[in-house]
Specification:
alpha/beta, Rossmann fold, two-stranded parallel ribbon, 8 strands, elongated
Length: 229
């Protein structure tokens, strides 16, 4: 395989469309395949190719979100050839929070959520099914889960938030979800507020990898039964 060009469209459909149009109008080498790092940009690629009457370039997206203009629907509509479902992990976050509180000793330190390739051959198997919840966990009391979401920068992140809300409702969890809007200081403040509220579990999608210790040590009120996942 030979990569003929790399474009940065910042997850945006319109920017991907404009950049692909400009590239194909001036490039001598037409690619056989265009890979977009999310499905919004993949849709932008499709729109660009459609406007230029080009139909022999394959398009691969990523995220596999089941929403309007999400990857599953784009594959089903034959606008793109392939997408890869990247599981959001919302259900697992809620269920493992409950198991931590139940002092389950069998919780793995690493949970691997496998990606799934979706094409026209198997899209029906995934379409409208991938967010189904199973294996309801029984709890003696209602758990309060404080979730500090990092932001809303992409369709995948929106799906991640939706799956957390849906899983919490399914598991009878009192979900306190706050969005940091991609601001690290705001996310630290949200976690500190959860500590003050003495929620049972704090979960988060981190904005950065180095600030958690500062967030927790900055507060003297984080004691059991406050758990962080």
């Amino acid at each position: 395989m030979r990569i003929v060009n790399t474009l940065v469209a910042n997850w945006q459909r319109d920017k991907a469309e404009d950049k692909i149009k400009a590239l194909l109008k001036t490039s001598i080498d037409q690619p056989d395949l265009i890979y977009a790092h999310n499905d919004a940009m993949a849709l932008g690629v499709y729109k660009a190719l459609d406007s230029l009457d080009i139909d022999d370039i394959k398009i691969i997206g990523s995220d596999g979100v089941d929403k309007p203009n999400g990857g599953l629907r784009l594959v089903n509509q034959k606008k793109i050839d392939t997408t890869f479902i990247t599981p959001t992990g919302g259900k697992q976050a809620v269920q493992y929070a409950i198991r931590i509180l139940a002092e389950d000793s069998e919780i793995p330190k690493k949970i691997i959520l496998r990606n799934h390739e979706v094409t026209s051959q198997n899209v029906k198997d995934f379409y409208l099914k991938r967010n189904e919840l199973t294996d309801h966990l029984d709890t003696d009391g209602k758990v309060t889960l404080g979730f500090a979401q990092v932001g809303n920068e992409s369709a995948w992140r929106t799906a991640n938030t939706d799956s957390i809300i849906k899983a919490a409702d399914h598991e009878n969890v009192d979900l306190q979800l706050k969005n940091a809007n991609n601001n690290q200081k705001k996310q630290i403040a949200i976690i500190r507020e959860f500590i003050k509220q003495k929620v049972d579990v704090i979960a988060f999608s981190p904005h950065g990898r180095t600030w958690l210790g500062r967030s927790i040590t900055g507060s003297k009120k984080c004691r059991d039964p406050c758990h962080i996942i």
